[in-house]
Amino acid sequence: MSEVSAWFREKISRRGLLWGGLAAAGGSAIAGTAAGQSVHSGHGAASAADAAPPPAHLAAHGSMITVGDVDNERNGFDPSRIVTDWETGSVSKLPDGRILRTFEIEAVDKEIEIAPGIMFPAWTYNGRVPGPALRATEGEHLRMVFRNSGSHPHSMHFHGIHAARMDGVPGAGLIDPGEEFVYEFDARPFGCHLYHCHALPLKRHIHKGMYGLFVIDPDPARHPGLADVARSRLLGTPENAEWQEFAMVMNGFDTNFDNGNEVYAVNTVAHAYMKRPIRIVRNRPVRIYLANVVEFDPINSFHLHANFFDYFEQGTTLTPTLRTVDLITQVQAQRGILEFTYKDHETGLYMFHPHQSEFTELGWTGMFDVVEAVA
Amino acid sequence: MNEVSHIAAADPTAPVGSGKSRAALLWMILPLVALGLAITWLLVSDPLRNFGNGAPPVENLTFERTILSSDGIRVLVRAGGSEPMTIAQVQVDDAYWQFTQEPAGPLGRGATAWIHLPFPWVLGEAHAINIVTKTGATFEHEIAVAVSTPTRDAGNLASQALLGVLVGLVPVAIGMMFYPVLRGVGRNGMNFLLALTVGLLAFLLVDATAEAFELAAESAAIFQGQAMVVLAAAASFLLLMAAGRRDGVPTGLALATFIALGIGLHNLGEGLAIGAAFAAGAAGLGTFLVLGFMLHNITEGIGISAPMLKKRPPLWTFVGLALLAGGPAVIGLWIGSLAYAPQWSALALAVGAGAILQVIVEVTAYLMRSDGRGPAALTAPATMAGLAAGVSFMYVTAMLVKV
Fold first, then answer.
1. Most CB atoms within 10 A, among A191, A266, B109, B260?
2. Would you say the pTM of this structure is higher than 0.95?
3. Minimal-distance CA residue of chain B relative to A363
4. Where is region (Disordered) located (chain A) (predicted)?
């Protein structure tokens, strides 16, 4: 190549001034391509005769992953921590003896890193996506103090039972930037719920990151027949401490405004739990609070490897609504509780992911690292 | 500055001249100083700041080359953003894949980088590469049919050279073999042949221009493809006109040389296109296609011979002219298959188009002169027939090579 281009330039440049102009054009064209070629010279080793497709020696799963790591510090939240991070607010007593639980939530515009190197201009609750996983107990009186420090009108619409005035839709708790609103209602029914912004346009406000889990634990006193089950769900009891509980929100991000997601994840960051598996102790039961808020795709799913689980649709029952399944599907805003254990398994890495291969390959996949009890 | 004025004052012989030149110098420096001040002001005060609205920078990415090998896929991308842009992740067929970028880091405006993906592509199937930048913008590139990209070993270069000779050199030489037959033609026959040449060149002009614009559209925006094509074509036309008319109007061998050069430049572009087809893995060049190219290019040999019918040039002239017209096909094939980038092919074709236009002008002028009737010769039946024959022969044989 270089010989050819050198020859070409030399031969042509010998001819007079007018020819020189042509030589400059042609010569630079060839020099440019030759330079492009030299950058690439390391690649010349591959054999031309090798017309057959490459062997599968490149471990498919090893290569099929995002490159690099997300800066959790800059993001201000770490997927490995928010998976177990419950927001319980502050507790006080009402005059009638009931518990008043107060949450403080602020809407903030924030650019977050959703996959290594990919920045997303998000709208957040408390600076994180998903927003804080709020957790209360059935029958408590809840007070949600919501401040809008974002650049757009926002609200909190809770999936639960409440008055029309507290609905978080336009005209009922939707507030402008700089304003504050207090949503007030009793915690019911118990279950695995969610909250999200209900400002318009709805699709954009949700997919920008304004959603989170809203879990109401059952009050054992109200469920005498299944008090033990209720106690195991009630945060703070010794029975509950035995369980390994995880908050998982399946979400996606459209980074190029084509109404399709470039990144899928559980708890926002693509491949977060693939690169840092979630540790679970082998002989302790596992409970996952799972919600689907993915936008632009009608259905998401959850598949567990090498195991089966019981499923509590919406979490509003104390007996499973599905028994012994390894896959459940959820449309947007559908959610539920998964219960399973690896106590009869050998230790090791067990994968979980949606069984839509596309979502899996675009970031929504993770691993449980099953270990023996830590001494 | 002081020293300069000192010398000027000390030289009694040239006070007037140096005063004049000093004034001229001043008038040259003044606008430059003004420009410097304007740039300094622009940088210091940053008046564009007021336009800053928090919008992400404009990003643009063009795929220039794709190489498939047993190692996976390599693509050469060129950035065209308003600011340096960062490639964050790469998807292949809607899946994130590990990749390496060379050189690493943000890509400045106009800069290129190789992206290497260890992707197990499937022979004969389609794959889509989607590059996601830091801002979440995506740039997609489709590999329509995945086949191994030929590499530059001696065997490949030799077989490509052979192909270049077949589609470029051989047909021109065959066309020239009609020379002895053509020598006997009269005025009408001569007009027919020259018009045939113009017709074939007109077809090539349209073909090369269209192809150049098409390639220009594929190239990075920074090259301003369309303007580049027009400017390169105009420049080559004017340069060749000037060169050709330096010693009067070209006739005989000189004119034949210009025709050969114009055709050669076109064949360079044609070679680039075939070579690029190899590089892109779409090397479906069957025997039929090669035959088509040969038939298509035979007229070129006749066209080159036409202006020399009144002379009797030595044999080596024919060899030289055939090489000039057909040889570039070989070079084009090599460049096209090894270092293909759409903007360079567009440039080559544009230069070729300009050269062809020059030859059309000169052959037409020659036709009018040699006929003796001036412009009237252009509307003579033999001329019209030649034009029609040239264009339609090229058109019909082009059907064989269009895919």
1. A266
2. no
3. B96
4. 38-57
